[in-house]
Amino acid sequence: MVVVVSAMSGVTDRLIQLARQVSPEADPSGREMDVLLATGEQTTIALLSMAIRAMGGKAVSLTGAQAGILTDHAHTRARIANISPEEIHRLLRGGNIVIVAGFQGITSGGDITTLGRGGSDLSAIALAGALGARLCQIFTDVDGVYTCDPRVVPNARKINEISYDEMLEMASSGSKVMQSRAVEFGKKFGVTFEVRNSFNNNPGTIVKEETAGMEQVVIRGVSIERNQAKVTLTRLPDRPGVAARIFRAIAEAGVIVDMIVQNISLEGSTDISFTLNADELPHARRVLEPILADLCAEEIIARDGVAKLSVVGIGMRSHSGVAAQLFEILSAGGINIQMISTSEIKIAVILDESEIERAARLAHDGFGLAG
């Protein structure tokens, strides 16, 4: 057995607060933040190993580096490049339970890195794939993946099985049960995993390759993502290269953009709108304002206080009218849609954040997802 653990509740937040106390006027160094944040998981692996030994078991703790998790050099949001699990195999052969620090790895130059919030899920699934594990279970504080957040929709029900694609769309659309990169890794390497509750023995949700029967369910779930912001650049010249200049500048600044909409050209000019996390809004403005004149744009209109509602299901591929049904549900509830984005298995809309919970309940009931 190999166990991947996170930091104890609240530890990572307290470490971030400490960093801000000693570096209040500047962003702390990413390298030093990774050295600091990695200590949360290292505390947990040592304590868990001690606890197992006190119960008569045989356990050894490993940091991400000791477990052979090699990453790129992107501090605080590193990506796994390779895993060399020889040390884990050696310890398993010796009859040990191996306790690995999640959320962290090491660069080829020997620097500690972290994988971003929720990175322990990614560590677990990546290790399961590298080890050829028979089973990967993700233990969390809920019984599995639900048709919507039960705190928002009390009659939401647990989903027994869900495809990688559906889980990936829900994770990237605001469902906090799993980190989206972890699901992406599971899909890429075919790691079937189960999301289940740490505090009971109830079966969880199995995340796996899609099967023919899954398409019979048109909508699998509804996700909401709060704390969003919308940016619009008005009266941009409608010519090649303008959009590339905008989003290249944003990408180089490390700002992640979600939905993008361009209006129909009118008299040689157009508007481009996009959404992003509200915490990134000041950063995006600092990047765009210096190039506003070069772009010949009229102004930047930025606002927070919006949220994203998504409905997800692989059954959409073979069923028409899902978008129309969602728009009718929201219209009947008097809820205005500000932006729309679609994919093969998802429809997402931007709404006022004050309306998001009511919209989620209306969509959940309207698509018959109630338990």
In short:
With 371 residues, this protein is of the alpha/beta class. Helices cover 33% and strands 27% of the residues.
Silhouette: globular
Q: Could you estimate the helical fraction of the residues in percent?
A: 25-40%
CATH architecture of the largest domain: 3-Layer(aba) Sandwich
Work out the strand percent.
Answer: 25-35%
Radius of gyration: 23 Å
What's the CATH topology name of the largest domain? Carbamate kinase
**Largest beta sheet: what is the strand line-up?**
13-14-12-15-17-16
Describe the fold and architecture.
- There is one protein chain.
- The chain is α/β, with parallel strands linked by helices and 371 residues long.
- It has three domains: 1-134, Carbamate kinase (3-Layer(aba) Sandwich), CATH 3.40.1160; 228-305, ACT domain (Alpha-Beta Plaits, 2-Layer Sandwich); 307-366, VC0802-like, CATH 3.30.2130.10.
- Helix content is 33%, strand content 27%.
- The strands form five sheets. It has a six-stranded antiparallel β-sheet with strand order 13-14-12-15-17-16. A four-stranded mixed β-sheet has the order 8-10-11-9. Strands 1-5-2 form a three-stranded parallel β-sheet, with helices on both faces.
- β13 (257-262) and β14 form a beta hairpin.
- α5 (164-172) runs antiparallel to α6.
- The two termini are 35 Å apart.
Main attributes?
371 residues, alpha/beta, VC0802-like, four-stranded mixed sheet, 11 helices, 17 strands, 27% strand
